[in-house]
Protein backbone atom coordinates (compact mmCIF):
# COMPACT_ATOMS: atom_id res chain seq x y z
CA UNK A 1 0.00 0.00 0.00
CA UNK A 2 1.41 3.38 -0.90
CA UNK A 3 1.62 5.59 2.15
CA UNK A 4 0.80 8.89 0.47
CA UNK A 5 2.76 11.69 -0.37
CA UNK A 6 5.46 15.20 1.24
CA UNK A 7 4.29 18.67 1.39
CA UNK A 8 7.39 19.51 3.40
CA UNK A 9 10.83 18.00 3.54
CA UNK A 10 11.82 15.71 6.47
CA UNK A 11 14.41 18.23 7.67
CA UNK A 12 11.81 21.00 7.97
CA UNK A 13 9.38 18.78 9.87
CA UNK A 14 12.10 17.62 12.23
CA UNK A 15 12.98 21.24 12.95
CA UNK A 16 9.37 21.86 13.99
CA UNK A 17 9.56 18.98 16.44
CA UNK A 18 12.84 20.18 17.87
CA UNK A 19 11.36 23.60 18.63
CA UNK A 20 8.63 21.93 20.68
CA UNK A 21 10.63 19.23 22.42
CA UNK A 22 13.73 18.50 24.53
CA UNK A 23 16.55 16.42 23.10
CA UNK A 24 15.34 12.87 22.38
CA UNK A 25 16.69 9.60 23.69
CA UNK A 26 19.16 7.42 21.80
CA UNK A 27 19.00 4.01 20.09
CA UNK A 28 20.26 1.94 17.16
CA UNK A 29 20.43 3.93 13.93
CA UNK A 30 22.22 2.22 11.05
CA UNK A 31 23.53 -1.11 9.86
CA UNK A 32 26.94 -1.65 8.19
CA UNK A 33 27.36 -0.69 4.54
CA UNK A 34 29.59 -3.41 3.17
CA UNK A 35 27.33 -6.40 3.66
CA UNK A 36 28.48 -8.09 0.46
CA UNK A 37 32.23 -7.97 1.08
CA UNK A 38 33.98 -11.29 1.63
CA UNK A 39 35.64 -10.14 4.79
CA UNK A 40 35.17 -10.25 8.55
CA UNK A 41 31.67 -9.42 9.68
CA UNK A 42 31.30 -5.73 10.48
CA UNK A 43 31.18 -4.57 14.06
CA UNK A 44 27.95 -3.45 15.69
CA UNK A 45 26.82 0.03 14.74
CA UNK A 46 26.89 2.59 17.57
CA UNK A 47 23.61 3.66 19.10
CA UNK A 48 22.84 7.24 18.14
CA UNK A 49 19.99 9.70 18.21
CA UNK A 50 17.47 9.75 15.38
CA UNK A 51 14.62 12.11 14.65
CA UNK A 52 12.21 9.21 15.08
CA UNK A 53 12.66 9.45 18.84
CA UNK A 54 10.41 12.48 18.99
CA UNK A 55 7.52 10.01 19.03
CA UNK A 56 8.38 9.31 22.64
CA UNK A 57 7.66 12.96 23.52
CA UNK A 58 4.48 13.64 21.54
CA UNK A 59 1.07 11.95 21.63
CA UNK A 60 -1.18 10.89 18.78
CA UNK A 61 -3.73 13.31 20.20
CA UNK A 62 -1.41 16.17 19.23
CA UNK A 63 -2.34 15.59 15.56
CA UNK A 64 -5.59 16.46 13.80
CA UNK A 65 -6.92 14.31 10.96
CA UNK A 66 -7.36 16.13 7.65
CA UNK A 67 -8.25 13.36 5.20
CA UNK A 68 -8.14 9.63 4.47
CA UNK A 69 -5.33 8.68 2.10
CA UNK A 70 -5.55 4.90 1.78
CA UNK A 71 -6.44 1.59 3.41
CA UNK A 72 -4.52 -1.57 2.62
CA UNK A 73 -3.69 -5.00 4.00
CA UNK A 74 -1.11 -3.70 6.47
CA UNK A 75 -2.71 -0.48 7.71
CA UNK A 76 -4.70 2.67 7.12
CA UNK A 77 -3.11 5.99 6.11
CA UNK A 78 -4.47 9.42 6.95
CA UNK A 79 -3.28 12.97 6.34
CA UNK A 80 -2.72 14.76 9.66
CA UNK A 81 -1.56 18.17 10.89
CA UNK A 82 0.42 18.89 14.05
CA UNK A 83 -1.94 21.06 16.09
CA UNK A 84 -0.81 24.66 16.35
CA UNK A 85 1.42 24.43 13.27
CA UNK A 86 1.23 24.14 9.50
CA UNK A 87 3.20 20.86 9.45
CA UNK A 88 1.35 18.04 7.67
CA UNK A 89 2.21 14.35 7.55
CA UNK A 90 0.97 10.92 6.49
CA UNK A 91 0.07 8.80 9.52
CA UNK A 92 0.11 5.05 8.84
CA UNK A 93 -1.60 3.04 11.57
CA UNK A 94 -1.02 -0.72 11.42
CA UNK A 95 -4.06 -3.01 11.50
CA UNK A 96 -2.26 -5.38 13.83
CA UNK A 97 0.36 -5.67 16.53
CA UNK A 98 2.94 -8.37 15.92
CA UNK A 99 6.24 -9.39 14.39
CA UNK A 100 5.39 -8.13 10.90
CA UNK A 101 4.52 -4.64 12.11
CA UNK A 102 7.65 -4.53 14.26
CA UNK A 103 9.85 -5.37 11.25
CA UNK A 104 8.36 -2.38 9.44
CA UNK A 105 9.12 -0.16 12.44
CA UNK A 106 12.69 -1.47 12.63
CA UNK A 107 13.20 -0.85 8.92
CA UNK A 108 12.05 2.74 9.36
CA UNK A 109 14.37 3.18 12.34
CA UNK A 110 17.32 1.95 10.32
CA UNK A 111 16.79 4.43 7.49
CA UNK A 112 16.38 7.39 9.87
CA UNK A 113 19.52 9.54 10.17
CA UNK A 114 21.42 10.42 13.32
CA UNK A 115 21.68 14.08 14.41
CA UNK A 116 24.72 14.69 12.20
CA UNK A 117 23.38 12.67 9.27
CA UNK A 118 20.89 13.47 6.53
CA UNK A 119 17.78 11.83 5.14
CA UNK A 120 18.05 9.85 1.96
CA UNK A 121 16.23 11.91 -0.70
CA UNK A 122 15.09 8.63 -2.29
CA UNK A 123 13.27 7.01 0.66
CA UNK A 124 10.11 8.30 2.35
CA UNK A 125 11.11 9.63 5.77
CA UNK A 126 9.60 8.63 9.10
CA UNK A 127 9.53 11.25 11.85
CA UNK A 128 8.11 9.27 14.75
CA UNK A 129 6.46 6.02 15.80
CA UNK A 130 3.58 6.10 18.27
CA UNK A 131 1.67 3.22 19.90
CA UNK A 132 -2.09 2.82 19.80
CA UNK A 133 -4.09 1.47 22.72
CA UNK A 134 -3.67 -2.11 21.50
CA UNK A 135 0.06 -1.69 20.90
CA UNK A 136 -0.26 -1.24 17.12
CA UNK A 137 2.41 1.09 15.72
CA UNK A 138 1.34 4.38 14.16
CA UNK A 139 4.10 5.75 11.92
CA UNK A 140 4.34 9.47 11.24
CA UNK A 141 5.63 9.71 7.68
CA UNK A 142 6.74 12.33 5.23
CA UNK A 143 3.71 13.36 3.17
CA UNK A 144 4.19 13.02 -0.59
CA UNK A 145 1.61 15.31 -2.17
CA UNK A 146 1.36 13.83 -5.69
CA UNK A 147 0.45 10.25 -4.81
CA UNK A 148 2.16 7.27 -6.43
CA UNK A 149 3.63 6.59 -9.85
CA UNK A 150 0.90 3.98 -10.19
CA UNK A 151 -1.58 6.87 -10.12
CA UNK A 152 0.51 8.76 -12.69
CA UNK A 153 0.39 5.71 -15.00
CA UNK A 154 -3.37 5.42 -14.65
CA UNK A 155 -3.77 9.03 -15.78
CA UNK A 156 -1.30 9.29 -18.66
CA UNK A 157 0.12 5.88 -19.60
CA UNK A 158 3.82 5.09 -19.92
CA UNK A 159 6.72 7.45 -19.23
CA UNK A 160 9.17 8.71 -21.85
CA UNK A 161 12.73 7.45 -21.45
CA UNK A 162 14.29 10.59 -19.92
CA UNK A 163 11.76 10.68 -17.08
CA UNK A 164 12.01 6.91 -16.70
CA UNK A 165 15.81 7.08 -16.43
CA UNK A 166 15.43 9.58 -13.59
CA UNK A 167 12.99 7.30 -11.79
CA UNK A 168 15.32 4.31 -12.25
CA UNK A 169 18.31 6.25 -10.95
CA UNK A 170 16.36 7.36 -7.86
CA UNK A 171 15.11 3.83 -7.19
CA UNK A 172 18.65 2.50 -7.39
CA UNK A 173 19.92 5.16 -5.00
CA UNK A 174 17.07 4.34 -2.62
CA UNK A 175 17.75 0.59 -2.82
CA UNK A 176 21.45 1.20 -2.21
CA UNK A 177 20.52 3.15 0.93
CA UNK A 178 18.19 0.40 2.17
CA UNK A 179 20.53 -2.47 1.39
CA UNK A 180 23.43 -0.70 3.11
CA UNK A 181 21.33 -0.75 6.28
CA UNK A 182 20.47 -4.41 6.00
CA UNK A 183 16.96 -3.94 4.59
CA UNK A 184 15.40 -5.70 1.61
CA UNK A 185 12.28 -3.82 0.50
CA UNK A 186 10.62 -6.79 -1.27
CA UNK A 187 7.62 -4.85 -2.59
CA UNK A 188 9.02 -2.38 -5.11
CA UNK A 189 6.33 -1.39 -7.64
CA UNK A 190 4.80 1.79 -9.08
CA UNK A 191 2.22 2.00 -6.28
CA UNK A 192 5.04 2.15 -3.72
CA UNK A 193 7.00 4.87 -5.52
CA UNK A 194 5.61 8.09 -4.11
CA UNK A 195 5.89 11.46 -5.80
CA UNK A 196 5.76 15.13 -4.90
CA UNK A 197 4.95 18.30 -6.85
CA UNK A 198 8.67 19.13 -6.67
CA UNK A 199 9.33 16.14 -8.90
CA UNK A 200 10.74 13.92 -6.15
CA UNK A 201 10.09 10.17 -6.31
CA UNK A 202 10.76 8.10 -3.19
CA UNK A 203 10.47 4.48 -2.10
CA UNK A 204 7.74 3.94 0.48
CA UNK A 205 5.84 1.17 2.32
CA UNK A 206 8.01 -1.28 4.26
CA UNK A 207 5.16 -3.57 5.27
CA UNK A 208 6.74 -6.72 3.77
CA UNK A 209 10.39 -5.67 4.13
CA UNK A 210 12.91 -7.93 5.84
CA UNK A 211 16.04 -7.22 7.90
CA UNK A 212 18.91 -9.36 6.60
CA UNK A 213 21.69 -7.95 8.81
CA UNK A 214 21.60 -8.11 12.59
CA UNK A 215 22.75 -5.28 14.80
CA UNK A 216 26.16 -6.91 15.19
CA UNK A 217 26.44 -7.36 11.42
CA UNK A 218 25.46 -11.03 11.41
CA UNK A 219 23.90 -12.19 8.16
CA UNK A 220 20.42 -13.63 8.22
CA UNK A 221 18.36 -15.75 5.89
CA UNK A 222 14.96 -14.11 5.60
CA UNK A 223 11.60 -15.05 4.11
CA UNK A 224 11.12 -13.54 0.66
CA UNK A 225 7.77 -15.16 -0.16
CA UNK A 226 5.56 -12.17 0.65
CA UNK A 227 5.01 -9.37 -1.83
CA UNK A 228 2.91 -8.33 -4.82
CA UNK A 229 2.65 -11.29 -7.19
CA UNK A 230 3.39 -9.50 -10.47
CA UNK A 231 6.72 -8.24 -9.11
CA UNK A 232 7.97 -11.48 -7.53
CA UNK A 233 11.07 -13.08 -9.02
CA UNK A 234 10.88 -16.79 -9.92
CA UNK A 235 12.75 -18.01 -6.83
CA UNK A 236 10.24 -16.29 -4.54
CA UNK A 237 7.51 -18.72 -5.62
CA UNK A 238 9.41 -21.68 -4.17
CA UNK A 239 7.83 -23.27 -1.06
CA UNK A 240 8.98 -21.47 2.07
CA UNK A 241 11.24 -19.21 -0.02
CA UNK A 242 14.15 -17.76 1.95
CA UNK A 243 17.30 -15.90 0.92
CA UNK A 244 20.46 -14.47 2.41
CA UNK A 245 21.56 -10.86 1.90
CA UNK A 246 22.63 -11.31 -1.72
CA UNK A 247 19.47 -13.16 -2.72
CA UNK A 248 17.19 -10.69 -0.94
CA UNK A 249 18.85 -7.78 -2.74
CA UNK A 250 18.57 -9.66 -6.05
CA UNK A 251 14.81 -9.95 -5.45
CA UNK A 252 14.61 -6.15 -5.24
CA UNK A 253 16.55 -5.84 -8.51
CA UNK A 254 14.03 -8.10 -10.32
CA UNK A 255 11.14 -6.00 -8.98
CA UNK A 256 12.92 -2.87 -10.20
CA UNK A 257 13.21 -4.36 -13.69
CA UNK A 258 9.49 -5.21 -13.79
CA UNK A 259 8.66 -1.74 -12.46
CA UNK A 260 10.76 -0.01 -15.13
CA UNK A 261 9.09 -2.11 -17.82
CA UNK A 262 5.63 -1.26 -16.51
CA UNK A 263 6.42 2.45 -16.26
CA UNK A 264 7.56 2.42 -19.90
CA UNK A 265 4.75 0.30 -21.35
CA UNK A 266 1.99 1.71 -19.19
CA UNK A 267 0.71 -1.77 -18.26
CA UNK A 268 1.74 -4.93 -16.44
CA UNK A 269 4.54 -6.47 -18.53
CA UNK A 270 4.17 -10.02 -17.23
CA UNK A 271 1.04 -10.97 -19.20
CA UNK A 272 0.02 -10.06 -22.77
CA UNK A 273 -1.95 -6.83 -23.09
CA UNK A 274 -5.60 -7.42 -22.31
CA UNK A 275 -5.14 -10.80 -20.59
CA UNK A 276 -6.91 -11.04 -17.26
CA UNK A 277 -4.51 -11.31 -14.34
CA UNK A 278 -4.63 -14.02 -11.68
CA UNK A 279 -2.14 -15.50 -9.24
CA UNK A 280 -1.92 -18.73 -11.24
CA UNK A 281 -1.36 -16.98 -14.58
CA UNK A 282 1.25 -14.65 -13.14
CA UNK A 283 3.13 -17.51 -11.48
CA UNK A 284 3.13 -19.58 -14.67
CA UNK A 285 4.36 -16.65 -16.76
CA UNK A 286 7.11 -15.72 -14.28
CA UNK A 287 8.34 -19.21 -13.44
CA UNK A 288 7.77 -21.09 -16.72
CA UNK A 289 7.90 -18.39 -19.37
CA UNK A 290 10.72 -16.30 -20.78
CA UNK A 291 12.02 -13.42 -18.70
CA UNK A 292 9.96 -10.25 -19.25
CA UNK A 293 11.39 -7.93 -21.87
CA UNK A 294 10.49 -5.02 -24.09
CA UNK A 295 8.57 -5.99 -27.24
CA UNK A 296 10.66 -5.93 -30.39
CA UNK A 297 8.27 -3.35 -31.84
CA UNK A 298 8.64 -0.96 -28.88
CA UNK A 299 10.40 2.34 -29.63
CA UNK A 300 13.01 1.79 -26.92
CA UNK A 301 16.70 2.57 -26.84
CA UNK A 302 19.39 -0.09 -26.64
CA UNK A 303 20.32 1.33 -23.23
CA UNK A 304 16.83 0.81 -21.83
CA UNK A 305 16.64 -2.70 -23.27
CA UNK A 306 20.01 -3.57 -21.78
CA UNK A 307 19.08 -2.15 -18.38
CA UNK A 308 15.88 -4.17 -18.19
CA UNK A 309 17.65 -7.35 -19.33
CA UNK A 310 20.32 -6.87 -16.64
CA UNK A 311 17.59 -6.74 -13.97
CA UNK A 312 15.51 -9.65 -15.21
CA UNK A 313 17.75 -12.71 -15.34
CA UNK A 314 15.67 -15.57 -13.97
CA UNK A 315 18.74 -16.90 -12.16
CA UNK A 316 19.29 -14.44 -9.26
CA UNK A 317 23.04 -15.12 -9.36
CA UNK A 318 23.19 -13.62 -12.87
CA UNK A 319 21.22 -10.46 -12.10
CA UNK A 320 23.12 -7.22 -12.00
CA UNK A 321 23.72 -5.73 -8.58
CA UNK A 322 22.49 -2.29 -7.57
CA UNK A 323 26.06 -0.97 -7.81
CA UNK A 324 26.42 -2.33 -11.34
CA UNK A 325 23.09 -0.84 -12.39
CA UNK A 326 24.04 2.57 -11.03
CA UNK A 327 26.91 2.49 -13.54
CA UNK A 328 24.70 1.32 -16.42
CA UNK A 329 24.56 3.78 -19.35
CA UNK A 330 20.77 4.07 -19.11
CA UNK A 331 21.11 5.96 -15.82
CA UNK A 332 24.79 6.96 -15.66
CA UNK A 333 24.75 8.82 -18.98
CA UNK A 334 21.39 10.54 -18.64
CA UNK A 335 21.10 14.34 -18.73
CA UNK A 336 20.16 14.74 -15.09
CA UNK A 337 18.73 18.24 -15.30
CA UNK A 338 16.62 17.54 -18.39
CA UNK A 339 15.40 14.21 -17.00
CA UNK A 340 14.40 15.76 -13.67
CA UNK A 341 12.58 18.58 -15.43
CA UNK A 342 10.59 16.20 -17.62
CA UNK A 343 9.68 13.97 -14.68
CA UNK A 344 8.53 16.95 -12.62
CA UNK A 345 6.36 18.25 -15.49
CA UNK A 346 4.70 14.84 -15.90
CA UNK A 347 3.99 14.53 -12.18
CA UNK A 348 2.52 18.02 -11.93
CA UNK A 349 0.31 17.63 -15.01
CA UNK A 350 -1.27 14.49 -13.55
CA UNK A 351 -2.02 15.94 -10.09
Secondary-structure map:
Layout: H1 10-20, E1 27-28, E2 47-48, E3 63-71, E4 75-82, E5 88-94, H2 99-111, E6 126-131, E7 137-141, H3 149-156, H4 161-180, E8 183-184, E9 193-195, E10 201-203, E11 210-211, E12 222-223, E13 242-243, H5 245-265, H6 279-288, H7 302-311, H8 322-326, H9 329-332, H10 336-349
Antiparallel strand pairs: 1-2, 3-4, 4-5, 5-7, 6-7, 8-11, 9-10, 12-13
Helix pairs in contact: 4-5, 4-10, 5-7
GO molecular function, one term: MAP kinase kinase activity
Binding site for ATP: 92
Organism: Oryza punctata (Red rice)
Major beta sheet, strand line-up: 3-4-5-7-6
Number of strands: 13
Outline, from the CA principal axes?
globular
Could you name the CATH topology of the largest domain?
A: Transferase(Phosphotransferase), domain 1
CA gyration radius, whole angstroms = 20 Å
Query: What's the domain count?
Result: 2
Strand residue content: 15-25%
Second CATH tier, the architecture of the largest domain? Orthogonal Bundle
CATH superfamily of the largest domain: Transferase(Phosphotransferase) domain 1
Terminal Cα span = 19 Å
Give the biggest sheet: 5 strands, antiparallel
Amino acid sequence: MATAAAASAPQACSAIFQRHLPRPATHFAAAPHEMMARAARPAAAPETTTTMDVGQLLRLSDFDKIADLGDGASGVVTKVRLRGSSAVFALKTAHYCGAGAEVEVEALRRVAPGPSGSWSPYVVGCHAVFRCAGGEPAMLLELMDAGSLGRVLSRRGGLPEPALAEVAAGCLAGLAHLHSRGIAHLDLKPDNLLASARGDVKIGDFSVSRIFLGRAGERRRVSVAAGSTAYLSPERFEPNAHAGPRGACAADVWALGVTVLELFLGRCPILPAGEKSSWERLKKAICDGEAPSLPATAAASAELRGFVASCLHKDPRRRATVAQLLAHPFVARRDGEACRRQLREIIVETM
